[in-house]
Design the sequence.
């Protein structure tokens, strides 16, 4: 059974420079202090070139049973992920660059990304200063994404590592894009909505065919929600959206692949099979077949 991780943040030596440019001096200092306090600063200092980092990641994939990874590229750092993809396309069949419309003001950047190996685009509206995801000004980007057959993936909900100026964004901001008749896109919502699963399930009542979720991350937002545990979240999501609309992901990055996330989610899927809530075919879809079809990889 092929396993594809659709949510992996790619780090290399160029990522530090990208962060400095993206965050600005003041926020970068805050970030560095958090890294020092968490003893992660040494991990940044030990990062290698994009190709070397890709080689390290490929070995980690083999150890942990992951067949392919879609590389997520931070703002100002897309080229490093494209280099890794082009060096090892069988392991990294596509790239998902971050797109910030307050920085990437020309939607034609999407064509350049597509030609280099992009299969999707990551939006993180909670980090935007002025725009909302429901703003009309986002339409040219979404229309270009549709034209290029890319997949939009959005982080709504709570944000780890956010600054005081950031705020969780409700996935109900998808409303204008789901209702428009001149736009036909499927939307992937990361981390089961990161605290907004109820809203996703409500939207699924009318727009379920256009909504996907990825399972990535610790999903510890559950501790502050009425959902009893991650197994229950999987079960409710699969019942509402169908197994065709759930995509496996880890939200890995600086520490390579997160074995705790992999083991936990594989265990949950095994439990759901034992309870006859899903079949072996459903499990195969969630772990890789859905990603292969949706992203065209």
Sequence:
């Amino acid at each position: 059974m092929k396993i594809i991780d659709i949510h992996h943040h790619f780090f290399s030596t160029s990522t530090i420079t990208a962060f400095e440019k993206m965050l600005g001096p003041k926020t970068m200092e805050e970030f560095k202090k958090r890294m020092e306090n968490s003893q992660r600063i040494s991990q940044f200092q030990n990062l290698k070139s994009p190709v070397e980092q890709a080689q390290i990641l490929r070995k980690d994939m083999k150890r942990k049973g992951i067949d392919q990874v879609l590389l997520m590229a931070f703002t100002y750092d897309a080229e490093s992920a494209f280099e890794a993809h082009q060096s090892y396309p069988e392991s990294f069949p596509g790239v998902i660059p971050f797109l910030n419309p307050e920085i990437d003001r020309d939607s034609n950047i999407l064509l350049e990304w597509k030609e280099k190996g992009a299969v999707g685009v990551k939006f993180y509206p909670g980090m935007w200063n002025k725009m909302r995801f429901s703003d009309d000004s986002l339409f040219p980007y979404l229309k270009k994404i549709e034209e290029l057959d890319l997949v939009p993936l959005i982080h709504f909900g709570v944000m780890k590592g956010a600054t005081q100026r950031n705020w969780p964004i409700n996935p109900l901001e998808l409303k204008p894009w789901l209702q428009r008749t001149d736009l036909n896109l499927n939307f992937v919502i990361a981390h089961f909505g990161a605290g907004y699963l109820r809203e996703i399930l409500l939207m699924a009542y009318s727009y379920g065919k256009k909504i996907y979720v990825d399972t990535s991350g610790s999903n510890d937002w559950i501790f502050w929600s009425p959902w009893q545990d991650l197994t229950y979240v999987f079960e409710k999501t699969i019942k509402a959206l169908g197994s065709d609309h759930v995509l496996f992901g880890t939200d890995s990055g600086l520490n390579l692949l997160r074995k705790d996330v992999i083991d936990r989610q594989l265990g949950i899927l095994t439990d759901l099979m034992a309870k006859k809530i899903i079949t072996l075919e459903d499990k195969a879809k969630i772990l890789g077949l859905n990603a292969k079809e949706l992203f065209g990889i």
About this structure: Strands lie at 4-9, 68-73, 95-97, 120-123, 151-154, 187-189, 211-214, 246-247. Residues 54 and 84 are 6 Å apart (CA to CA).
